[in-house]
Amino acid sequence: MIKNDLLLRALKGEVVERPPVWMMRQAGRYLPEFIEIRKKYDFFTRCQTPELASEITVQPIRRYGMDAAILFSDILVIPQAMNIEVLMKPDFGPLVPNPIRSAKELKEVIVPDVNESLNYVFDAIKMTKEILNNDIPLIGFAGSPWTILCYVVQGQGSKTFDKAKEFCFKNPILAHELLSKITATTIAYLKQKVIAGVDVLQIFDSWGGASFTK
């Protein structure tokens, strides 16, 4: 049993004594102990090393004792697992060097066995749960299929995602196939996160509000 189940009760729609508090920015990126880790390891090394991801996850909990922890990871580990190269460039953000914009490129995109390609996430969950010792819930997350499509077609962040929208309008069949592959991978990933031990799942639809007009 989770000792502090305030978030879980709130999510069930129960009346709670106060709003649950947790830190959306995953790990408190301003914390000095986080900055020390960041100096030594690049972003995806932090995500892909269970010991580092687990440590970063619990750092703000040690300091502030929030009502939940959220696993240190990134929504773009999913396209990486799908055979799409994703880089995280300092002072720039995510970069997909070879965006998916044709049938040839889409053919190389796979629906992976998440237990193989994303096992490091599940290991990080298990390590984090052990550290948390049932004190508070652990949140796992993924990006929505549309948000992931925006990144892998556009190739980088954007205010308009014009290339992603153009791809959908001009190649609706390819867009549907890409979304289907992302969706299948995401479902398998989230299911396995539950098996690994997360108590809550969150979907980040970062670009869901993008205007979808020609």
Brief descriptors of the model:
single chain, 214 residues, mainly alpha, TIM Barrel, 3-stranded parallel β-sheet, two-stranded antiparallel sheet, 9% strand
Walk me through this protein's architecture.
The mean pLDDT is 94. This protein has a single domain, classed as TIM Barrel (Alpha-Beta Barrel). Helix 4 packs parallel to helix 8, helix 9 crosses helix 10 and helix 9 packs across helix 11. The termini are far apart. By secondary structure, it is mainly alpha-helical. It has a three-stranded parallel sheet. 50% of the residues lie in helices and 9% in strands.
Question: How many structural domains in the coordinates?
Answer: 1
The string of secondary-structure elements, in order, is HHHHEHEEHHHEHHHE
Under CATH at level 1, the class stands as Alpha Beta
**Uncertain runs:** none
Number of H- or I-type helical stretches: 11
The helix content is 40-55%
Sheet/helix structural class: mainly alpha
CATH topology: TIM Barrel
Number of strands: 5
CATH-level-2 architecture = Alpha-Beta Barrel
Query: How far from one another are the termini?
Result: 51 Å
Largest sheet: 3 strands, parallel
Q: Taking all residues together, what is the mean pLDDT?
A: 94
Using the CA coordinates, give the radius of gyration: 18 Å
